[in-house]
Structures are given as structure tokens and as C-alpha cells.
Design goal:
Elements (H helix, E strand, L loop, with lengths): L10 H13 L7 H12 L2 E6 L5 H14 L5 E7 L2 H6 L1 H11 L6 E3 L4 E3 L8 E6 L5 H9 L5 E6 L7 H8 L7 E8 L7 H5 L15 E3 L4 E5 L5 H5 L10 H9 L1
Parallel strand pairs: 1-7, 1-9, 2-5, 2-6, 6-7
Antiparallel strand pairs: 3-4, 4-5, 8-9
Amino acid sequence: NKLKPEEGGLGTYGHCRELAKIFWPKLIWHEWLDRQIESLCEYNEVSWAGCGASGKTYAASLFALLWWSANPSKSAVILTSTTAKMIRKRMWGNIQELVRSSTGFPGNMVDSKMSLQSVKGDDKHCISAIAVAEGSTAKAVANIQGIHAERVMVVVDEATDTPEAAFEACTNLSKGCREFKLLVIGNPASKFDPHGRFSEPKYGWSSVDIETEEWETKRGVCLRFDGVKSPNMKAHIPRYPFLIKKSELEMAREN
């Protein structure tokens, strides 16, 4: 399931880093962001599991923009989360801030639709946000199924609480497109919810333990982010204010 590395040049991950440098010269990289972006460069179906404040949603938004910008007129990115309020606060908020702070990111922003269009009026080739657990799930599924483009990427945030029908609609988008990428994100709750099943190790749950930080799945790879191993812990000081800190980890243990 791992993509074949490119021959010569910088490779997919290297080019991704260079593109990010062009759009966001002051972007702060850290060990977890490196792992997150590299996993999406190496695999088409990826799961991220781990603690809150591990930068998962931010990294997903960043990569979605980079992936889409490679060919906006033939690409569609679908960002899903449980509610419109949550997706606007998390992923769409990140998209807005990254576009605003860029050196000149392409596209036409339509905030009322939570959409970044390749050109004005193009709702087919865009980055769009869809709430999947609020109101009618059938309507959300229909909106997802209506997405058609040569290149399609789907990000399922809060996958542990995503309705099964919406989750299946997202995974089924791989049919009929030339290039497909799927990222599933969650703070682990159960091996049997949509996120848990998607993250199941290729050789079963008995093949991993509490120390395992990465494993092959039947469809790709799962990366686990343990708060105890946060880049802030390794630095001994909170160098990255947006990642989980020692004080927050101690508070969580007390509770």
C-alpha cells in the first residue's frame, strides 16, 4: 500500500516541503508535523490517532491546501466533521488562516459556503467543508457522493463520531477518479468505531502495543501520537504553544 518513491529529485515529501516554504516561509515545523505530512506523501490511505493538541487537524488542513494547489482545476478536497460549528472552528478555520497568511495562495474563497474554489463559481473543483452528523445524514451523504473530479482527497475529522453511512460515502469516492487520498483522524475511543476499524493493524491488534507509534493497516498506515512523547516534552520547555504541554498532560492525569 506504500507509494513507490519518486526516482531522483527531492521526492514527494521534499517537494511538498519546498512548496510549503514558498507559500508560508515562516511555517514552524516540528517532529510530529514532519511525520504527519510525510505519511500523506507516502500513502494514499492514512489514519492519525492520538491525543488532543497534537496538531492533527492543522496538519491535515495544511496538506489539503498543498495537495489541491498542485492542480486546482482538476482537484476536489472534502473536509468532513461532525457539525458545521465544529468544522468551521477547526479545519475551515485553519484553511482560512493559512490562505490569509500565505504569500499568495490560489483560488476564490467563499466563506458562506465554506469553499475555496479553483476559479469563481467552480463548486466542483474546490476545497469544501461538509458536516456529517448534524441534521440529515442522507443529505450529507448525497453531497459527498456528488463530488466528482480527476483528483479527490477526503479528510474525515472526528472519525470516531462520524456516522457509518457518511464514512462509507467518503471511502467510496475512490471509485472513478484518477488519484484518491483519504485521511481519517480521531482521538481513539474504540477498536470497533469507524476510526478504530480503519486503523486496525494489518496483522491484528495483538501485533501492536501501547508503545507502538506507527503500523501498517490493511489499507495504508496508522500514525499514533502519544502526549507523553510530544515535541514539547522532548524539548523540556513548551517550544510549540499549539502542541500539548507538560502542565496539560499532568492536569489530564490528575483528572
